[in-house]
Amino acid sequence: MSQNKTRKYSKKRKKGNAKWMPILIALGGILLVAAAFLALREKPAPKVPVEVKGSPSLKVDQEERDLGDVKLDQTVEVSFQLTNVGDKLLRFSEQPYIEVAAGC
């Protein structure tokens, strides 16, 4: 007799899950369409012309900047324009640094 009750209970449970199945399938389909849309949408156009394909590339507006004679303990400010002219994202793996070359 207890086996008969268990069977009835399991049948009712299966029927309850069946009503949620179309909703779950619809949600899964919506998620797949959204994922495809995000994967296939166009990337924004680069702000500068691409000069290197397949990798990032850093371009500096001026290689050297001559500051003339600078007195000791005098503060000097210099700015450079850095641009990624590659078609991939540019990431620094280490802290960037500037090398100062002292001339004669």
Question: What is the oligomer described by this structure?
Answer: single chain
Task: Determine the fraction of residues in helical runs and give it as a percent range.
Answer: 25-40%
Rg value: 32 Å
Find the structural class using helix and strand composition.
Answer: mainly alpha
Shape type: elongated
> What's the end-to-end separation, in Å?
104 Å
- How many β-strands, per DSSP? 2
Q: Low-confidence spans: pLDDT under 50, at least 5 residues? A: none
Mean pLDDT figure: 79
Strand content: 5-15%
Task: Give the helices and strands as they follow along the chain.
Answer: HHEE
The largest β sheet comes out as:
2 strands, antiparallel
Number of domains: 2
- Strand arrangement in the largest pleated sheet: 1-2
Compute the number of helices. 2
Helix/strand layout:
Layout: H1 2-18, H2 21-40, E1 58-60, E2 82-84
Antiparallel strand pairs: 1-2
How would you describe what is shown here?
- With 104 residues, the chain is mainly alpha-helical.
- It contains two helices and two strands, in the order H-H-E-E.
- It has two domains: 2-40; 48-104, no CATH class.
- A two-stranded antiparallel ribbon has the order 1-2.
- The N and C termini lie far apart (104 Å).
